[in-house]
Amino acid sequence: MIRKIVYGVFILIIIAAIAIFMSNYKFGVDKMDVGKYYLDNTVPQTGAANVVTSVTLFYRGFDTLGEVTVLFTAALGVAVLYFMGENKRKQKLQESNFVTKIGTRVVFPFILLTGAYIFMHGHLTPGGGFQGGALIATGFLLLYLAYEETSIDRKKFYLVEGLGGLTYVIIGLLGFFMKGSFLANVLPNGTLFDLLSGGIMLPIYIGVGLKVGSELSNIIDDLMCEVKCEEAGGEE
Amino acid sequence: MVNLANPTLLVVIPLFFAFLSIIISPFLKKLIKFVPLIVSALNLVVIYFIGVKVLYGSIVLGTTAGLNPPYVIILAVDKLNFIIVLMVNVLGFLISFYNIFYMKEEPTDKFHILFTLLIMASSWISITGDLFNVFVAFEVLSLSSFGLVGYMRSKDSIEAGFKYVVQGILAGSLLLIGVVLIYAQTGTLNMAHIATKLDYVGSLEKLVPYVLIFFGLAVEGALFPLNSWLPDAHPAAPSGISAMLSGIVTTTAIYAIIRVTVTVFNYSAFIPYLFIIALLTLFFGEIAAFFQKDLKRMLAYSTIGQTGLFVLAFSVGTQASISASVAQMVNHSFSKAVLFLVAGIMIEAQGSRNIDDLKGFGRVNILTSILFVFAALSLIGVPPFFGFFTKLAILQTLLDFPGFLGYLSFALVLFAAIIEGVYFYRVFKILFEKSDKNFQAENPWLVISPFILVLILVILSSRPMSVLNFTNDIANQLIQRTIYLTSVLGGLK
C-alpha cells in the first residue's frame, strides 16, 4: 500500500514537472533553423521530391545507417537467444484452413510487389525502405501461417541481408573516396519526380528494403523454430 | 589522396565487416571469430592517424553527406574523445583475442558479430558530435549487449538479460524524450549548435531535458538507483563480455554524461544532486561488494562503486576534478577488464563462481593469480600502482567541493578504498591458501590478453605524472568549450 502511494507521488511529480515544462514552452515561435534549410535546399541538393526521405537518408543518413544496424543487431540477438542447436523444438501446429492457403497463394506475389514498389519510390512518395521491407516480411509471415512446412533458405536470406547492408556502406564509402565525406551524393540528381532521381537515395533504399525484408523474415523463422531453421543456417 | 584521419571510418569499418560476415558465416564459420580482432586493429590504425592530429590540439572532424554542420551529422574527436575511443578499441582488440579461445558455446559466429557491433557502438558513442546520434548508437550498444548477456541461455542469464532489456529500453526512451525536448527548444541536434542556442533558454526548460538525458544514460552507466540490472548481468554474461561491459560500456555511458554536461549544457543546476547520487553509488556499491560470495558478482558491485568514484570526482566541476576523473576511468577500465578476464579463467578451471572454491588456485596457476593481484592492487589504489595516483588526485579535488559534503565525501572515498582492500585481500588469501584440490592448468592463450593489459597498467604506473598531465590537457580542452564549438560549427554565424 505504502509502496503504491510512493509510486503514485513519484509519478505525480514527474507529471507536474512535464506540465510546468510544457506550459513554459512557447509554441508558434520560429525555431526551424535547420528544418527550414532542409525545406529550401532539398530539391537543388538532392533531387528528391520527398523532403522527409531526403532528411532521413541524405542529411541525416548516418543516423539511418545506425537504425539499419539496430534492426540488424536485434535480428542477431533473436537468432542467438532462440538458437536451438541439436535439440529442436517439436510442436504440432494446427493445420490452417483452405481459405488461408489459397488466399496466401493469391496475395503473396502482390505483397512482394507492393513492398518493392514502396521502397523503390521512397524518394517520391511516402514510405521507404523500412516500410517496404516490413511489408515484404508480412508476406513471408503469411506463408508460414498458411503452410506448416514452409522454411526459408537461411543462407540466401543472410546473403540478401548482408548485401543490403553492404550496399549502404559501400555507397557511403564511394562518397568518402570521391568527395571526401561519407555518404556524399555521388550520383546525378536526375529530373524531379522521375523514378531515377534523388541521387544515392534510390539504391540505398533498395538495399535497405531488401535488408529489412529478409531480416524480419529471419526473425519470423527464428521464432517459429520447429521449422528446420538450424539445418539451413546454423551449421558450417 | 584519401585522408585516413576521419572519425567516420571508426564506425564504417566495423559495420562493413559485420555485414560482410553475416554473408559468409554459413560458409566460413571458422573465420568469423577473427572479425572483431581485425576490426579493432583497423580501427586502431585510424585512431593512430587521428591521434597524431589530436595530440597537437586540433579537433578532428568527420562530416557526412558532404555538407557542413549543423545541417548534417558530424563526428568530432578532441582529446577526451580520443582517449575514450582508444581505450574502447585497445580493450576490444585484447578481449576479442581472449574470446577466440574462450567462446565454445554455439552459435559462435553470431557471438563474434554481436561483439563487433558492441565495439562499433561504443566507438560511435565516444566520437559523435550529434545528440540524436548518441541515442542511435546507444540503441545499438544496448541491443548488442542484451544479446550477449543472455547468450548462455541458462536460467540466470535469461533472467539477467530480461532485466537488462526492460531497464535498457526504458533508459533509451528517457534519452529519446530528452533529445526530443532539446530539439523542441532549439530546433537543432548538433551538440555544438545546441550549446550555442541553449544560452537563450530558461533554466527550467534546460533542467527537464538534462535530467531525462542524464537518467537515460545513467542506467547504462550504473549510477545508484538505476543499476539493479548490473549485478545480475555481469556474472551471467560470458567473462569476455563482462570485461567489455564493465570496462567499456559503463565508461562510454559516463563519457556521454560528461560530454552532455560540460559541452552541451555547460553545467546544470542538477550537478549538486549528481554529487550525492555518485556518493551513494560509491558507498552502496562497495558495501554490497563486500558481502558477495560469488567472484564475478563481487567484481560487478565493485564496478558500481568505481563508477560512483569517477562520477563523484567529475561532479566537483573543476578542471582538476575532470582530469582526475578521466584518469580514474582509464585505471578502472584496464584493471577491471583484467579482473574479469582472469575471473573467467578461474571459473573455467574450477567450474563454479564461488570464491571459497578457489582455495589453492594460486599455488597451481601462479601467473593468472599474480595478474589478478596486480590488477586488484591498481584498482584499490596501492602505491606504487597507477590507481594510487588517480585516487590521490581525486581526494585532492574533493576538498574543493563547498561545505560539509566535501569533507564527508573525502572520508567516504577513503573508507571505500579500505573496504575494497579488505574484500580483495580476502580473495588473495583464499587464492594462495594451501589446499589439496586439483585445478586444471591455465590455458596459455587465455592469459595473453590479461597479461598485456597488466603490462599497460605497469607502464602507466611507471609514468603516472605524464598520464595525469595528459588528462589535465583533456580537462583543459573540455572546459574551454568555445574551442570545441567554433571548430565544429566552423564559419557558422
UniProtKB/TrEMBL annotation, chain A:
Annotated MrpA C-terminal/MbhE domain residues: 30-81
Chain ranges of the Na+/H+ antiporter MnhB subunit-related protein domain: 100-216
Segments passing through the bilayer: 5-25, 68-85, 106-124, 130-147, 159-178, 190-210
Family assignment from sequence similarity: Belongs to the CPA3 antiporters (TC 2.A.63) subunit B family.
Keywords from the named record: Cell membrane, Membrane, Transmembrane, Transmembrane helix
Protein known as: Cation:proton antiporter
Recorded topology in the membrane: Multi-pass membrane protein
Subcellular location as annotated: Cell membrane
Signal peptide limits: none
GO (cellular component) term, any one: plasma membrane
Pfam families: MbhE (PF20501), MnhB (PF04039)
TrEMBL record, chain B:
Pfam family, one: Proton_antipo_M
Gene Ontology, cellular component aspect: plasma membrane
Localization (cell): Cell membrane; Membrane
Alphabetical list of InterPro entries matching this protein: CPA3_Na-H_Antiporter_D, ND/Mrp_TM
Domain NADH:quinone oxidoreductase/Mrp antiporter transmembrane: 129-404
Ranges that cross the membrane: 6-28, 35-60, 80-99, 111-127, 133-152, 164-184, 207-226, 238-258, 270-291, 298-322, 334-352, 364-386, 406-425, 445-462
Membrane topology of this protein: Multi-pass membrane protein
Keywords: Cell membrane, Membrane, Transmembrane, Transmembrane helix
PANTHER family, per the entry: NA(+)_H(+) ANTIPORTER SUBUNIT D1, NADH DEHYDROGENASE
Family, per entry: Belongs to the CPA3 antiporters (TC 2.A.63) subunit D family.
Protein name (Swiss-Prot/TrEMBL): NADH:quinone oxidoreductase/Mrp antiporter transmembrane domain-containing protein
Source organism: Caldisericum exile
